[in-house]
Design brief:
It is a single chain. By secondary structure, this protein is an alpha+beta fold. It has three domains: 89 residues; 99 residues, 2-Layer Sandwich (Beta-Lactamase), CATH 3.30.450.20; 236 residues, Histidine kinase-like ATPase, C-terminal domain (Heat Shock Protein 90, 2-Layer Sandwich), CATH 3.30.565.10. It is 51% helix and 21% strand. It contains twelve helices and 14 strands. The strands form four sheets. The chain has a five-stranded antiparallel sheet, with helices on both faces. The chain has a five-stranded mixed sheet with strand order 7-9-10-12-11, with helices on one face. It has a two-stranded antiparallel ribbon with strand order 6-8. Helix 1 packs antiparallel against helix 2, helix 7 packs antiparallel against helix 8 and helix 11 packs antiparallel against helix 12. The chain is elongated and about 160 Å long.
């Protein structure tokens, strides 16, 4: 509206000036004709000449104004047509599936990519309720719409959508507010298919897990060798005392040792398993303790000290996939363990930097990261470890997992003093994601 005001003023100014000019020319020419050919006519004839001049001027000005207005209208209609064609071209050329809908999810726009991705034609969906949201994701979409209405656009959010046949698949969604000149408010949803990306990420997580398991093989053997050797020695002693006295105490110790080995092997199998991505409410502090317990063989082999300070987030939960969070914490703790010298120290601290957020800090007293390496630490296949000691995928995978869960991750490092990995996750409270400013 504001941009069209100067153009409207210029239109009226041009029309007025041109009309005055035409009127001036007509009156001037008429005066010349009267003075040359009608100088001696009577008053009545002169009166009719004045009337004729007024009618002729009015007709001429009306024709001019009509032609000018019509020309301007046609020009604006042509500009509007080109603008619409350009808009349609951009909409159809978009690499993402674009849907425009109102607060009641009634669809107003639907591009060709959306037709291909969801298998629903534009004619079928226009004016209908958005058909691509699975029932279990309806509450999530309403929460996203609420955030967008408050002026917080959601970009690159991973979620599920379904096609015409009801098949669910992973998409990356961006949701933006869209307002027209008359004040009408709508929502612009752009989605892209990320099924291949999700599958590739799962494969990378499994590769990183297998790499971690290979690195921990020696520590695992040492960790299991001690209780197994003790059990074997106790069995030999029981055989020697078989006829002398009861062996109840020895059997109890053997049972405890077997339970220990069974629990450890079970944790190893759980870590190695491949499970589908499924976000649930997970308590963070027990999950961190579980990962630290799993890494115990490597910690003992290096005679390292791991200090845990998790009181600030005890009982707090996040909406997350447990398998992915375990992999992420395993990567960060394994990196810290690789960085420290024998008998080094690792500290895991949790705090609440702002309402609705928790922060997990994993610090080591290793040599730190050099200034030249620091900008590249999250790049895939970049590693400062020696040959055969790392894939360079760990931090890239950890960053991807954190971003998928709506959090953030950063590193702080001081050469010769150590490195701290800081992970921020949104706390889930009262059935909805906790509010608050991301730290």
């Amino acid at each position: 509206m504001e941009s069209s005001t100067p153009e409207r003023r210029w239109f009226w100014a041009t029309l007025l000036l041109s009309s005055v000019s035409i009127a001036g020319v007509v009156f001037g020419v008429w005066e010349l004709v009267e003075s040359r050919f009608f100088r001696h006519v009577d008053y009545l004839t002169l009166h009719y000449l004045y009337i004729t001049r007024g009618i002729a001027s009015s007709l001429l000005l009306a024709l001019w104004a009509g032609w000018y207005v019509l020309r301007q209208r046609r020009r604006h209609e042509e500009e509007l047509r080109r603008s619409r064609e350009r808009y349609r071209g951009l909409l159809e050329a978009s690499p993402g599936a674009v849907a425009l809908y109102d607060a009641s999810l009634r669809v107003l726009e639907w591009n060709a990519m959306a037709e291909r991705l969801y298998g629903v034609s534009k004619a079928e969906v226009l004016g209908q309720v958005l058909p691509t949201v699975p029932p279990e994701k309806e509450a999530e979409l309403q929460e996203l719409l609420r955030q967008v209405e408050q002026g917080v656009p959601r970009l690159d959010f991973e979620t599920l959508r379904r096609d015409k046949r009801g098949s669910r698949f992973e998409v990356q969604l961006s949701l933006l507010p869209f307002r027209e000149a008359d004040g009408s408010s709508y929502f612009l949803e752009v989605t892209s298919d990320i099924r291949e990306r999700v599958r590739m990420r799962q494969k990378l997580i499994e590769i990183e897990k297998l790499t971690s398991m290979g690195q921990m093989a020696a520590g695992t053997a040492h960790h299991l060798n001690t209780p197994l050797a003790a059990m074997l020695l106790r069995i030999q002693m029981m055989r020697q005392r078989l006829h002398e006295k009861p062996c109840g105490a020895d059997l109890e110790r053997l049972e405890d040792g077997l339970h220990f080995c069974q629990h450890f092997v079970q944790r190893l199998l759980e870590f190695a398993r491949q499970s589908p991505t499924q976000k649930r409410l997970e308590e963070v502090s027990p999950l961190i303790r579980s990962v630290v317990s799993f890494l115990a063989p490597s910690v003992l082999a290096k005679r390292a000290c791991v200090a845990l300070d998790l009181d600030a987030v005890n009982g707090e939960r996040v909406l997350a996939d447990r398998n992915q969070l375990e992999a992420m914490f395993s990567v960060l703790l394994s990196n810290a363990l690789d960085a420290i010298a024998p008998e080094g120290a690792i500290a895991v601290r949790c705090r609440r930097p702002s309402a609705g957020w928790m922060e997990i800090q994993i610090s080591d007293n290793g040599p730190g990261i050099g200034p030249s390496d620091f900008p590249h630490v999250f790049e895939p296949f970049f590693t400062t470890k020696g040959p055969g000691k790392g894939t360079g995928l760990g931090l890239a995978i950890a960053r991807n997992i954190v971003l998928e869960h709506g959090g953030s991750i950063r590193l702080e490092s001081v050469p010769q003093q150590g490195t701290t990995a800081i992970v921020a996750l949104r706390i889930h409270a009262d059935g909805a994601a906790g509010e608050g400013k991301r730290p």
